Structures are given as structure tokens and as C-alpha cells.
Amino acid sequence: MQVPIIDVIFDIWFESNMPSEVLLGIIIEENLTYNKVKNLPLLQVPLDIRLMDSNLKHQPLYEILSEEKPYKIILGHNSLGLALNGEYQGWDESFFPEIKNIYKTIFEKKIINKITRCGLRYIDFFENENIYEIGKISIKINDNTDTKDKLFLRVEKDVDSNIAMAVVINNKASVKNFNGDKVGSIIDIASFIKNKDFLNKNNFFDITEQLHKINKNYFKEVANDKLIEQLGI
Fold this sequence. Notes:
Layout: E1 5-15, H1 20-30, E2 34-39, H2 47-52, E3 62-66, E4 71-75, E5 79-84, H3 91-108, E6 114-127, H4 131-134, E7 152-158, E8 163-177, E9 180-194, H5 201-222, H6 225-231
Antiparallel strand pairs: 1-5, 1-6, 2-3, 3-4, 4-5, 6-9, 7-8, 8-9
């Protein structure tokens, strides 16, 4: 079965004395394959307003694209992320090495003062499938177990005192791609960690792998054994 991952985003929230445009220049200089910059609409909002609004403070201002790699760097005044911009090629094989490649800059150049949050999000899409029929999820309302209606399930949980998760499961989601709209089920799993010592390179990448294991294990709790075997995970 084809890997159903349609998006992966790894990002950090940080504090820095450098303006976002200076950070942008450093990141491009250190990662030459990412050389196409796209300004996002939020850049038009004045900085003081963005910093005062907690909903805007960590939103991206730029996308930095690569013609050679299936990824894009997303940069805000207080955030730095790596996201999928093509077909997913595996964690160990591609995405985690690219995280190391991009984020080593923040340690070598010492361009930020503090990392306040670190997060990883996976979105899986199953075209023309009902996740409540092919997964391990049971929903019952007044003895009615029919899952043919549109069902939207959100789960928020603490993994431990520092790690939290937010999971969205939808059996009739619409997804846009190059071939137009497609309908199916999504499993959207995001985990994040805070209150840790992130400004240690080895510790940072250990935490990154920990988040990946948490997301993967929760996916196995949702998907049935046959599906897990088909996907080879």
C-alpha cells in the first residue's frame, strides 16, 4: 500500500534578538538548495501587532522552497519549521536527516536565545476509506454504532508532564492535490514538548526522535493490524 502521509511538519518556537529578515538571510546562506522565497500574507501585518497577538506570534512569514528536495522551510519571527512539499520519503531515510541538516544552523550560528516549544505533526489520508471501519476506533451513540455519517473526533491528551498530543480523526475529509479534490479519511496527529532544555544539539535531536515515536505509536493505536502490516510500520 502507498504511504498515506500527505503532510509532515516539524517546527520550533523560539526567542531571538534577530529580526526575521536577518534569520531568513542566514538560513538561505547555510542551506543553498533552498533558494526560492515566498512572502506570506502575515508579513503585511505590522510587527508590534503580530507580537502582541498570541495567535499570530508564531505563524510563518516566509516559505523557502527547494527545487531539489521535497521540503520547504517555514520561518516566522518566532518560529522555524520544515514541512513536506512533495512525496514523503520516510523518517530515517529522508525527513529526520533533513531536520538535522536545517536545524544544525541554529546551534552552530547561535542565532536564537531560547527554544520554548518543539512539535511534530503527521497527516495521513485514506482516499475513499472510512477510518471508523478500517481502524480500531469504536463510536457508540445511544446504542447506534453506524459510522456512515460524517464523524469528526478530536482527542487531546498529556503523554507526560512535558509532552502533549492533539489528534483529529475525520472520516469524510476533502483534500486538494494536483488531481483535484479527493474525499476520504484523515488521521492528524500532532505532538509537542515544552519545558525542556532544547539548546543542546544532542538533546534536541533526541527529543525530535522521541516525538516521532510517540506519533507513530499512536497511529498504531488507531489503525488496525492489517493496515499496519500493509504499510510496513
